[in-house]
Amino acid sequence: MRQTTLRELAVLFLRLGATSFGGPAAHIAMMDAEVVGRRGWLTREQLLDYIGAANLIPGPTSTELAIHIGHARAGWPGLIVSGACFIAPATLIVAVMAWAYVRYGALPQLVGLLYGVKPVVVAIVVQALWLLGRTAVRTPALATLGVVSIAAAAGGVHELLVLAGAALAMALAGSHRRQGAALLIATTGATAAGLASGGAGAATTATLTPLFLVFAKAGALLFGSGYVLLAFLRADLVERLHWLTEAQLLDAIAVGQVTPGPVFTTATFIGYVLAGPWGAAVATLGIFLPAFVFVALSGPLVPRLRQSPLASRALDGVNVASLALMAVVSWQLAGATLVDALTIAIAAASLVALVRYTVNPTWLIAAGAAVGVIVH
Questions:
Q1: Can you tell me the mean pLDDT for 266-293?
Q2: What integer pLDDT is reported at residue 181 of this predicted model?
Q3: CA distance 206 to 311
């Protein structure tokens, strides 16, 4: 099979990046149709291996899958081209929306659009939490870990410590099945008591270097669904650094939802709001750079991780803790978003449409935006 050219990779992933609404699952389905079905660049077994590899490392899964495909088809240049082209369209769209947001402030059109979209975002997060939870919470020990992680996150324990404690607890509990639940509680509780970093910090200025570091940390440490990003950003940008208000964070997440491509382009919007075009560039680089590094480094390690019972149990714990963070932040988002009868009705109808009728989230976002614009 001939090697794929960089131009072919660029054209494909620019198009996917501009049209891939619906979240990581939809992105992966589109890549499967294009790369396996139409072009035959990979077998489905090879693609599944790359999906598994992407799920074993932090960062945006669908972006990492694009990077894996590029590396498989065109080496190191392909790795860069595929990832950059998948990210670029959404980044540009979000940057334009951020410019309008900053330039004109609370545009009536944008206010109305976000009023209708935010309840849909809440429903999408809740549905994603339910679907992921059914897969991740497979044992009573994992269910116990989920409850403890929710309590820790709700109590103010740093989200990174919740993830680390969950990984350690599951790794240690694996060889002591009958004492698993007690060990989970004890380990996570000790982590919370001994390592918690406390509540809100003092306000600081959003200069470029701290901005890069905040988003690089998120990109380097975020396991699970992209929606867990909400918990990271809220803890850092709203509670500890006071760079954003709760309303601004919700606006940023909503903008990330109404645009194609990875949810992580929320960083572009926040960076622009905080520090203009350079802020957008620095935040985008920070949050996506770890994905390129991890894909480049993780390939040879993936088979060993899959074969290691200890690593497998630790990853199970990380996934459950990620869902716990999602649960806490979805509750907080719901409280800030569902402010009247109409927003409650939009969220409820969206959840029914997602769960009962499997409606594409893109259509629900469009419908919510239309309702919001009409009402306002």
A1: 94
A2: 47
A3: 37
pLDDT at 198: 44
Composition of the chain by helix, strand, coil, percent to 5: 85, 0, 15
Quote the CA–CA distance of 180 and 145 in Å, as a whole number. 10
Look at residue 185 and give its three-state secondary structure. helix
| 229 touches 202 (CB < 8 A) | no
The span from the CA of 3 to the CA of 19, in Å, is 25
pTM of the full predicted structure?
A: 0.68
Collapsing DSSP to helix, strand or coil, 284 comes out as helix
Listed residue (59, 124, 8) closest to 287, CA to CA = 59
Tens digits of residue pLDDT in 208-256: 999 999 999 989 888 655 567 777 888 889 888 889 988 888 788 778 7
Q: Collapse the DSSP code of 3 into the 3-class scheme (helix H, G, I; strand E, B; otherwise coil) and give the result.
A: coil
Smallest Cα–Cα separation from 257: which of 216, 227, 289, 225?
Answer: 227
Q: What is the residue extent of each domain of the chain?
A: 6-87, 88-375
320 three-state secondary structure: helix
Q: How far apart are CA 50 and CA 53, in angstroms?
A: 5
Burial grade of 32 (CB within 10 A; 0-12, 13-18, 19 or more): middle
User: Which pLDDT band holds residue 188 (cuts at 50, 70, 90)?
Assistant: very low
Q: What span, in angstroms and rounded, lies between the C-alpha atoms of 88 and 368?
A: 26
Among the listed residues 78, 11, 20, the one whose alpha carbon sits nearest the alpha carbon of residue 292: 78
Cα dihedral 10→15→20→26 (10° resolution) = -70
